[in-house]
Write a structure and sequence with these properties.
By secondary structure, this protein is α+β, with helices and mostly antiparallel strands. The chain is built from 16 helices and 15 strands. Helix 1 crosses helix 3 and helix 3 packs antiparallel against helix 4. The chain is globular, with a radius of gyration of 30 Å. It starts with a helix and ends in a 25-residue tail after the last helix.
């Protein structure tokens, strides 16, 4: 057997061993300092993998599979890495026993197909109404609990309120419609959800609040338009100079009055407001807000129904946006501009917390839950979590392996062993004796009527996951298994790594007449 296969397996297994300690609700944090010397303290697999600069090409295949899981579902990235790494460790044992790579791959593919069939049979619940907050919270709570244990009840309520509030009637959910605004200070329990958008900005002028707001949104600076070509003006007398500047001022004043006459009482611009423009806006009682990000401008247009204008022209009635209240508020020591709207298409979770690291971690947990809600709109089926599904699949695969006549039976049996490892890792991360609780779990799954039994780490025993509320999304598990098996079989198929050296440029010419450096 080629040594390259074993070296690839060892690299992937090392990555898997690094990530498995972060698995589950009691997973340990990793402290990562990236190449820009920015500190990350998190147990979130997608963040860890994105900040680690992995060089080994075989390990990169696992990272790519995890990234695809993150893009497809938004959760379960660690599951992909851990299952793929464990499958490769088991494959190494099979290869040393004398099986060929092709036989191992065939066995794994057969086992994966059977595992997905069993997983479909494991479905225990389906959410019929995505506007039912209680049912949605039941699906989102385990996702948040694995990232932020202890705050799952509060954060689940916040995410459920934010997501259900902006779900359109045709059930095509956009994750970009739920924003997160982080304000350091106070505690997580002071976090709230607001229908509309919040920006960590101050208003530009003196007017700080207006109700029943009509918004004119401009992508350009709010000032006198400069000419596109350079021009020279010849002024001969002081009177001409006076008339020239007053003409510009009069033009700007007329323009702003025309904007106010169109009905706008809030002006949002993507560029700078001139002092003169602010003077006229304050005179007319118009709120001025500057947003630096063009993406924020687009979101605000979507939330309020406005059209972004590229020039400082008076908007038509159709181009104006509408908002219930626009106001400057103070949260802690931060100044926030809030665009509140009762039936907004965008909602904002206003997060409070003691440290920036905590806020970043909570934001990641919320983003995972939002992505899970989007997955619910595609497939709302739920399966038992806490290791119950993996143990039941492993139990049935062991029966299937015993009935398989060829050498693939050994690969199917090893696939089952790899799945049994997953609940063991979760238990060990919680400080529970892994082998003891996994033995109990395996014994329970051989009894009738206990196929939903999984880990109950709070009581250091096993229990019915449906009763305990430990449920996982069917899509998360099925895609994680697919990506893990695909990654493992792709690595096994590699028998040689060929790296092209970077081409060297021509060497500099040497001149004997040059002076020495010293």
């Amino acid at each position: 057997m080629d040594e390259a296969v074993f070296r690839n397996i060892e690299a992937c297994a090392e990555l898997s061993r690094t990530m498995r300690s972060a698995l589950g609700p009691n997973g340990l944090n990793k402290m990562i300092i990236n190449r820009l010397e920015k500190l990350f303290v998190t147990s979130d697999a997608s963040t860890i993998l994105s900040e680690l600069e992995i060089q080994h090409p075989a390990a990169k295949i696992l990272v790519l599979s995890a990234e695809m899981q993150q893009k497809e579902i938004g959760d379960g990235t660690n599951m992909v890495i851990v299952i793929a790494g464990t499958l490769l460790e088991k494959a190494e044992e099979l290869l040393k026993m004398g099986l060929s790579v092709a036989e191992v791959i065939d066995g794994y593919n057969t086992a994966a197909k059977k595992a997905l069939e069993v997983l479909e049979d494991m479905v225990v619940e389906e959410i019929k109404d995505l506007y039912d907050r209680k049912a949605v919270a039941r699906a989102l709570k385990p996702v948040i609990a694995t990232k932020m244990r202890g705050y799952e009840d509060l954060l689940t309520d916040l995410v459920t309120e934010a997501c259900v509030g902006v779900l359109p009637s045709h059930h095509v959910f956009d994750v970009d419609n739920v924003r997160v605004c982080k304000v350091p200070g106070a505690g997580i329990h002071n976090s709230t959800v607001m229908q509309g958008m919040v920006f960590r900005r101050e208003v530009e002028g003196f007017r700080q609040r207006t109700e029943n707001a009509k918004l004119a949104i401009f992508t350009c600076p709010f000032d006198i338009a400069a000419t596109e070509t350079k021009g020279t003006v010849l002024l001969k007398t002081a009177e001409e100079l006076k008339n020239f500047s007053s003409g510009e001022e009069r033009l700007l004043e007329e323009n702003i009055k025309a904007i106010a006459k169109a009905g706008a009482n809030v002006v949002v611009a993507g560029g700078k407001f001139s002092d003169l423009a602010l003077h006229y806006l304050d005179q007319l009682g118009i709120v001025a807000v500057r947003l630096l990000s063009k993406f924020d401008l687009r979101r605000l247009c979507r939330a309020t129904g406005a059209t972004a204008l590229p020039r400082m022209d008076p908007p038509t009635a159709e181009q104006l946006g509408h908002c219930d209240v626009v106001e400057l508020t103070e949260v802690g020591d931060a100044q926030l501009v809030a665009f509140r709207q009762k039936d907004s298409r965008i909602s904002t979770v206003l997060l409070r917390g003691a440290t920036d690291q905590l806020l970043d971690d909570v934001e990641r947990a919320i983003n995972h839950a939002i992505n899970t809600y989007k997955a619910l709109t595609k497939d709302a089926r739920l399966v038992p979590g806490a290791g119950a599904s993996e143990t039941e699949i492993a139990t049935r695969l062991e029966v299937a392996a015993a009935q398989c006549p060829g050498l693939e039976q050994y690969a199917i049996a090893k696939f089952a062993e790899a799945l049994r490892e997953l609940p063991r890792f979760i238990a060990e991360n919680a400080g529970v004796r892994g082998s003891e609780i996994i033995t109990k779990l395996a014994a329970a799954h051989h009894e009738t009527g206990k196929r939903n039994f999984g880990l109950d780490l709070e009581n250091e025993t096993i229990g019915d996951t449906v009763t305990l509320g430990y449920l996982d999304l069917f899509l998360t598990k099925s895609w994680a298994m697919r990506y893990a098996v695909n990654a493992a079989t792709t690595v096994l198929r590699v028998d040689q790594i060929i790296m092209a050296k970077p081409a060297g440029g021509p060497k500099p010419k040497e001149n004997k007449d040059w002076d020495n450096d010293d």
